[in-house]
Design brief:
Elements (H helix, E strand, L loop, with lengths): L1 H7 L22 H36 L6 E4 L3 E8 L11 H18 L6 H23 L9 E7 L7 H18 L12
Antiparallel strand pairs: 1-2, 2-3
Length: 198
């Protein structure tokens, strides 16, 4: 119970768990300074998301135009090549029978990140969530607009390491964001900027 109160705060301890006191209109409080800081973190989140999304979208447009129906391009001998693959499953080609489910999950992730952004005061978390958001948007765009149909579209994958599944830049952004979130959690850093040690 004490741990929960520390994280979310209580009416008697408005500053607990990193929560910001709501004292609008009262001079001498830190609330006005915190609002711009929170907005900057949100700006970082959406900037990272937009960059990850743009890179993924442009790379897929190039792959479809220049590489699909052509021989793979060797980048590092047999160890890395670019090869256009249409993937109806999740990241790295898993679960091709559940395309609609993965589409719903991607949409849910986007909604959760958008809601979490309102309480975001940590720069590392902003970067991590931006990577997740950009990657989810990239693959969701394929699910919606590519064949065989809306919400069932196959994702364009093209990065093919030897002895590994083919993936794309959106998958990479999602994985990097997920790894960063795990590291931040191990370090005890919460999205609201609170640092705690167990």
């Amino acid at each position: 119970m004490a741990e929960a109160e520390r994280i979310i705060g209580t009416p008697d301890t408005p500053g607990a768990g990193g929560a910001e006191p709501e004292q609008s209109g009262v001079e001498g409080t830190g609330a006005p300074a915190e609002e711009p800081r929170g907005r900057r973190r949100i700006a970082v989140l959406f900037t990272v998301a937009a960059l990850a999304y743009a890179l993924d979208l442009v790379s897929k447009l190039i792959v479809v135009a220049k590489l699909e129906h052509h021989a793979p391009i060797r980048i590092i001998g047999d160890w890395l090549r670019f090869e256009a693959i249409r993937n109806a499953g999740a990241a790295f080609g898993f679960g091709e029978a559940f395309t609609i489910i993965f589409t719903v999950i991607a949409a849910a992730v986007i909604v959760v990140i958008a809601r979490l952004a309102r309480k975001l005061y940590s720069l590392p978390w902003a970067i991590a969530l931006g990577l997740l958001l950009g990657g989810a948007l990239g693959n969701l765009t394929d699910r919606i607009f590519r064949s065989p149909g809306i919400f069932e579209g196959a994702v364009v994958d093209f990065i093919a390491p030897k002895h590994f599944a083919v993936f794309n830049l959106a998958d990479s952004a999602i994985v990097c964001g997920g790894i960063l979130i795990v590291l931040l959690s191990f370090r005890g850093l919460d999205p609201d900027g609170t640092v705690h040690k167990d």
